């Protein structure tokens, strides 16, 4: 069975990507930390979802889990690097160093580890598609984005460089940069504070996880000779000021 690997598969974009690819007949190796959510997906799609409950920042555990993928799920046609997070919303001078480290660990290092592992197989077979989920924050700064935006700049730049290194091969690389989206992302950023998380969507249009899953599938399903390099996607009502600034100022005022 043609199979994709999705990281961060237990919620948000990742979960929507699982549904999308399953509905098109693909197998999915679904990676996340929260095993109950993964097992829910497996119960829903017992023949098509293989849950791998591992911490992506644990390089050895990821390597081992992928080595043990059963033959039914071993024909990997795409790696969707979706796992990532933003932590904290203040300006650099107030943010926690440990939050910065956690973002670098998951948004950059974990992505690199799994990419290196899967890329080896793709190169041996001369086929496969790596789709990285970046962010509009990679391109446009806003107050409170700091290290989050910088990690996503890394993802966007790495995607282009990976594409460059793979010149002459049949391996595809796509970078997808979503804007404001309604998922658990905001709740993680605000460390479980629902009011603050909800406030960033007030009076705004936003993307949903299905919009991003559709973009991923569209990029993936292009003809063999077509590589979609970059998709930048925003909700209709968002602008390059990213709409966060007034909210973040209000939140900062509340914090003070
Ligand atoms: C987050 C996108 O616009 O919410 O990746 O900063 S935005």
Automatic annotation (TrEMBL):
Keyword Oxidoreductase: yes
Keyword Glycoprotein annotated: no
Pfam families in the record: adh_short
Entry keywords, A to Z: Oxidoreductase
Matching Gene3D superfamilies: NAD(P)-binding Rossmann-like Domain
Domain of life: Bacteria
Family: Belongs to the short-chain dehydrogenases/reductases (SDR) family.
PANTHER family: ALCOHOL DEHYDROGENASE
Identification of the protein by name: SDR family NAD(P)-dependent oxidoreductase
Organism: Vibrio barjaei
